[in-house]
Hints:
By secondary structure, the protein is of the alpha/beta class. The chain has helices at residues 33-38, 50-53, 84-99, 136-144, 159-180, 185-193, and strands at residues 11-15, 44-48, 63-66, 73-76, 105-108, 120-123, 130-133, 150-152. β3 and β4 form a beta hairpin.
Amino acid sequence: MKDFFLSQKPRIGISACLLGQRVRHDGGHKRDLFVTEILSRFVEWVPVCPEVEAGMGVPRETVRLVGDPSHPHMVADRSGKDWSREMEAYSRKRLEKLSSMNLSGYILKKNSPSCGMERVKVYGKGGAPKLKGRGLFARSLMTALPLLPVEEEGRLNDLALRENFIARVFAYHRWQNLLSGARSPRPLIKFHKNKHY
């Protein structure tokens, strides 16, 4: 869709709580200073809160991943309600829209049963949870948009990982701009001659 294509600044999807939106289960947020004070000057944000948008509301019961780490269920702690189908249906629908917005990157909330990129707790039958999960929305996102640069906010505190993510975002944005223009060898050669970091 041309109306989403292509802004001067890279468009980055982000867990809404990281921008300071009060969408957490307790009505709070997880505002990230690097994201809001520094990176915001150079990008356009597309905030997403899968749990709220899937119908869980604020405040809400906490949820966690349960079962097989390769395909866990999202289950509410107190009531035992299984939100897996709702989250998977929501993710498919939301990702259709996000796919049309030409995102150049995505920042996820670490440890979240919906948005955690890696090492999310998955509870089995007794014993300690395994740190082998990925949030249900994050899994759908990374499957649907495999080329998209994706990172968790916690990992962006590592300067090497931060630099790598930002370089990938801006290189991907330039690639998107190249693909949106006239197709000829000259822009492609120029793209490959440019340093993207």
